[in-house]
Amino acid sequence: MNLKLAELFGKGKTVFSFEVFPPKRDVPIETIYETLDELQYLKPDFISVTYGASGSLADNSTCEIASAIKADYGIESAAHLTCVNSTRHELDVMLERLQDGGVENIMALRGDYVPGIEPKHDFEHASDLITYIKSKHYDFGISAACYPEGHPDSTDQVSDVLNLKKKVDAGAEHLVSQLFFDNQIFYDFVDKAKIAGINTPIEAGIMPVTNSKQIERMVSLCGASLPAKFTKMMQRYENKPEAMRDAGIAYATNQIVDLLSHNVDGIHLYTMNNPYIAKRISENVKSLL
Ligand code: FAD
């Protein structure tokens, strides 16, 4: 079935989706299918697959996995695609591959600059990639990223929201947020986006933090601010892995319950390829969606 992610919204149920990443270079690709074997029973509305993020493979594996999620697991999928380190020709090849693989949805991203690698200059921003995909008349649904606390490269939040509007005007029909730990920041951002004329569904990106190493990495990468109740929890349980895991699941669950009571469009769970944690959180919130 041909389904654009934007069509999932406004159907009387909050969209609940997952993100997975292709295995890292030293891990066999099969491991992702073991993860998906378990995630499928949680019946997410869609699963998105990252592209070259955090040391995972920026090759055909994103396409292969997104294609399998749809064809073999019967779940809608989205393939992430970044442009800053690719030429137009390389993207043409990838777009053809995604189309041939039956992938219907693309999360169009700029991607991060990689230290020591000169970026290709065919595309400067995600909006350029979206414009390009649209100009080629592909029939992909297009999603894009948004940043409740502003993108780290931005000088201020107003210009970041105005740049987000450019992505929407270029053709992004659905947005997924960067992770955050303070829901008020997300609500304020959604208000600003609405004032800027952004009327696409905005999914809240939720990252269950289940070990202290993970949070150090995440915060250094995306600069998310940490509320006092969150840091207190981290300090209390950092040397007790099981308690830390359970506290992280409880914190993410509380965030989701609060978001649902504020009528959020959707929840996008960063699963970190951990079906156990996704399962616990899904069980906690499934009757509330
Ligand atoms: P852009 O939208 O291009 O924004 C980047 C900066 O440029 C911002 O400061 C913005 O305000 C500014 N800007 C945007 N458009 C314009 C314009 N037209 N004119 C002037 N300024 C502009 N990275 C990966 O490598 N692989 C992934 O799979 C991946 N998935 C992600 C999924 C989500 C939900 C999120 C939130 C991020 C993801 N990232 C991924 C990280 C992302 O690639 C980085 O945050 C990157 O630095 C910015 O990508 P973007 O698409 O948001 O960029």
TrEMBL record:
Entries under SUPFAM superfamilies matching the protein: FAD-linked oxidoreductase
Pathway membership: One-carbon metabolism; tetrahydrofolate interconversion; Amino-acid biosynthesis; L-methionine biosynthesis via de novo pathway
Gene3D superfamilies registered for this protein in UniProt: 3.20.20.220
GO cellular component: cytosol
EC numbers on record: 1.5.1.54
Catalytic activity: (6S)-5-methyl-5,6,7,8-tetrahydrofolate + NAD(+) = (6R)-5,10-methylene-5,6,7,8-tetrahydrofolate + NADH + H(+)
GO molecular function, one term: FAD binding
Cofactor(s) needed for function: FAD
Superkingdom to which the source organism belongs: Bacteria
Keyword terms of this UniProt record: Amino-acid biosynthesis, FAD, Flavoprotein, Methionine biosynthesis, NAD, Oxidoreductase
Class in the EC hierarchy, top level: oxidoreductase
Any one biological process term the GO annotation gives: methionine biosynthetic process
NCBIfam families given in the database record: fadh2
Family in the record: Belongs to the methylenetetrahydrofolate reductase family.
Protein name: Methylenetetrahydrofolate reductase
